[in-house]
Amino acid sequence: QALHPARIAMAQNGGSETGGSTMSLTCLACGSPGAEFVCSRCRLVRFCGQGCQRRAWRLHRPSCRGDGWAQAQCTAEQSTTKASASRLLAYPNVGALQGEVEVDLEPGQDLPTIREAVARAVLGKSANVVGVRLHSAGTGCELTSAAAVRQQVLQGGVIVCPDVPLRADCKHATARGRHPSSCEVAGGEEAPRRYDARLLGGQVLRLDAEDPELRSLLGCQVPIVVQGSDLAGQASKLWSFDYLDRHLRDVDHFFVLRAPSSSRGRFGYYDFSEGKNPCGHRITPTNERVEMRFSDFRRKAADLRSCLATEGASQAQDSLYLQTALLHRGVAEAGRPRPVGSFGQRCGVRVAADMEEFRWDWLAQVMGGREAQMCQLFCGLPGGFSPCHYDPQDNVFAQLRGWKRVLLFHPRHFGCLYPWPVHHPQDRQSRVDFEAPDLEAFPRFSELVGRGLEALLGPGDILRIPPGWWHHVEMLPSPPEEEVVSLNFWFPAPGWFDGDPDSGNISWDRPLFGIRRVLFQRSIEELIAQLCGPEHVLEVLRCCLKPTGPVPEGPLGQAVTQVQTYVATVFPDEKERMGVLAEVSEGRFLGLLPLSGG
Question: Which end of the chain has fewer CB atoms < 10 Å from its terminal CB, N or C?
Answer without folding.
Answer: N
